[in-house]
Amino acid sequence: MSAVLAAVLEDERPWRQFICRACGYVYDEKEGDPDGGLAPGTRYEDIPDDWACPLCGVSKQDFDPYAGPSSGPVSARAVSQVPSVSRARKGVVIVGGGHAGWSVARALRAKDPDVPITLIAGDAADVYPKPALSLAFGHGKSANDLIASFGADVADDLSVRLVPHAFAIAIDAARRRIRTTRGAFDYDALVLAMGARPIEAKTMPADLCWRINALDTWTKLHAVLARGPARVAVIGAGLVGCELADDLAHAGHAVTVLDPGARPLAAWASAQESQRLLDGWNRLGVRFMPSSAIASVQRRSIGARAVTVLHCDDGTFVDADVVIAAIGLSIDARLARSAGLLVDSGIAVDATTLATSVPAIYAAGDCVSIDGRPCRFIEPIARQAQAIAAAILEQPFEATTFKAPLVRLKTRSAPMTLTGRP
Amino acid sequence: MAVIEEGLVDPRAVRDASLRTESRDAMLDRVRVIAQGPLAHDAERIDRQGHYPRDILAALGEAGALGAHLDGNGTDFVGAIRAMTEAGRVCGSTAFMMWCHQVCGLYMEQSGNPALTGARLDAHARGATMGGTGMSNPMKTFARIESMLLRARAVPGGYRVSGTLPWVSHIAKNHCLGAVAAVVDATGKVVDDQHEVMFILDCDAAGVELKHCPTFSAMEGTSTWSVRLTDVLIDADHVVADPVRPFIGRIRGAFVLLQTGMGLGVAQGSIDSMWQVEEQLGHVNAFLDDRPFALQAELDDLTARIETLAATPFASGNDYLIDVLDVRAHASELALRAAQSALLHHGARGYLMSAAPQRRVRESHFVAIVTPAIKHLRKEMARLMTPQTPAFDLPAFDLPG
Lengths: 422, 401
Hints:
The complex is a heterodimer. The longest helix of chain A is centred in the middle third of the chain and has 14 residues, at 271-284. Chain A has 3 domains: 13-80, Rubrerythrin, domain 2 (Single Sheet), CATH 2.20.28; 92-196 and 331-419, FAD/NAD(P)-binding domain, CATH 3.50.50; 209-329, FAD/NAD(P)-binding domain (3-Layer(bba) Sandwich). Chain A has helices spanning 3-11, 72-80, 99-111, 143-146, 151-158, 215-225, 239-250, 271-284, 333-338, 381-392, and strands at 17-20, 26-28, 63-66, 92-95, 117-120, 161-163, 168-172, 177-180, 183-186, 189-192, 197-198, 209-210, 231-235, 254-258, 287-289, 294-302, 305-312, 317-320, 322-325, 329-330, 347-348, 361-363, 368-370, 373-374, 406-409, 416-419. Helix content of chain A is 23%, strand content 24%. In chain A, a hairpin with a 2-residue loop joins strand 8 and strand 9. In chain A, strands 6-5-4-10-22 form a 5-stranded parallel β-sheet, covered by helices on one side. Chain A has a 5-stranded parallel β-sheet with strand order 12-19-13-14-15, covered by helices on one side. By secondary structure, chain B is an alpha+beta fold. In chain B, strands 1, 2, 3, 4, 5, 6, 7 and 8 form an 8-stranded mixed β-sheet that branches. Chain B folds into 3 domains: 8-129, Orthogonal Bundle (Butyryl-Coa Dehydrogenase, subunit A, domain 1); 132-241, Butyryl-CoA Dehydrogenase, subunit A, domain 2, CATH 2.40.110; 245-385, Butyryl-CoA Dehydrogenase, subunit A, domain 3. The radius of gyration of chain B is 22 Å and the shape is globular. In chain B, a hairpin with a 2-residue loop joins strand 2 (151-155) and strand 3 (158-168). Chain B is built from 14 helices and 8 strands. At the A-B interface, helix 2, strand 7, strand 12 and helix 6 of A face helix 9, helix 10, helix 11 and helix 14 of B.
């Protein structure tokens, strides 16, 4: 056999690849290394000993036969199923620094001194009694008077990692991670306690109408009303509207209440009770305008003064310095939907465990709904917190049946007690 | 198809959707050929030598990747983002320039200005002409992070614009870019701080100078220049919007959403590179935090979320915008983590200056800092989440009687 024929026969062997053990460079016999003096087709065994890896400079002895990654991700996936490095306990993440959020933190800490707790709040998470927001003007209180303790101090006491002024943006339920405006947090269990927020209506723009549901907005309104007696228009004669109207009248402001219904508290109180409230308002100088559906709210300048004008459907209008819209609460469903949670009038939860429709996610307080109805009362929150803490820590918990709480209407003109719905 | 027979679904809509999917798939096939071929070949040169891949961008334009999102082509934002992702897997700089080009087309089309649509837009969408975007400064101005760098003085026939934009990418002497200037009076004072004008600036117009800018750690092949304007005449044929704010409000979601393709591409390229060493290094890489299968699952979920939002790119409302800002932030965060992890998966071979993993680390940093940066996105989401109230710093009431 001639040498030429032998070379041709040899060339019929498939081209092979060799990988540099030092840097991962792959030498392909077919390609060679022209820059390094190896013509295409140079067999591994024909590479001179003084040849160096073009990337890292090691010699050919440091190369191993290489099969290539052709088998791809599928077989590699099997290689990769080595149990992952163990992770630290991520603990519980609570969204919301109000009464419900802190109640869950307290209940968890009481049952387990070690479980890591992170509390994410859109404000400073200062602790204050929310019902007091309906009485504070009349009693001449400031925001500082209302704060019982600062969020940072409570967090220290409870060994809670507090993330203040952070908004929860999205939940990645598959990876048990919540994304916020201050970064992402991993959780073993997540508790949503972000409350409800006042309903926004297009006819009542947010830059003209106050919506009072938390201390920070109350504080801003307080700064405005501290300048002197004002004409205040309150839209909505439900619990919050009636309480605020009563309180502001006691503080010396000229208050008008507008409601599309025939009487205040129509959904809550009997006709006699509503009349008792109206009588009290009459003595106090609160004007009630029934059958008044708002068509628009606009700012108008009268001479040098800026006045806010409320136009009703029937053509009547009211001038005001301050407008408060209290037409009800709803939840911000965007966050819950990002996790695929079942949402109706609130985040749907199991009445006993407060578990949502997605594993490891619970909800408490004003943001929940039980059997399709919201549950926005203070009284059940302590029990909800106990139930959630027990469920997360897998401890026994004796469920009690829910009773409709009593609601104390804090209208000083005509105090009354009503039966709350779950 | 029972739903069609019962009249529940418009059959034309079904046909249009399937035609669109077909043309999208064909477009993406063409993009993959370019990305895996000439772009893969040039990626290192683009990064290391600052080579501007004009020919490749033109080819991507011919392939339909630069105009898919335009209304004239069926508003296929999903297709536009996927095309950017395919390029970004191979070269982050090219993905970024595709975004620059796409939003420039978006400005032109959405302007409704006959001089900026029609033949001029067609040429732009096909990649026959090139155009970038100088919107970083105005976007940060609207978010109250910076103040406006360009000033426009009203003159007969339009505006005279002066000022300097420090770095604008994907431009050259015969390219154009979208920009915004604050409107000032004859003395140079801002009269109405809400009044700006947006326009397409031709880089070869009188009074425009392109100057070299300092070297960045990556993205050197993006043809990035400092643009100095001296009394440049902007006539009605070049005006995109006047006033600007309602226009920006309308296109903002689309502007940010398109950018996610960059982050998805860099993340996917990083994951691809992890698999390349899995056979050989999987036994040690198993000890690392962010493994390719976990990153891929997260990337797939994020992509699905982005494509849902991309179905309605001009949706209004805070909820939509917050979701768009969040997926943009998530794409940045994932690109950072994936690029970092890919380098750790490769070890020293990925740390070589010629290796793609270290290049992607630098590209991922760019994804995270280019406007809107992660910090800007979070600040803006916080602003949108904060309850709005009436002004509370007004003078005392002046009550009658």
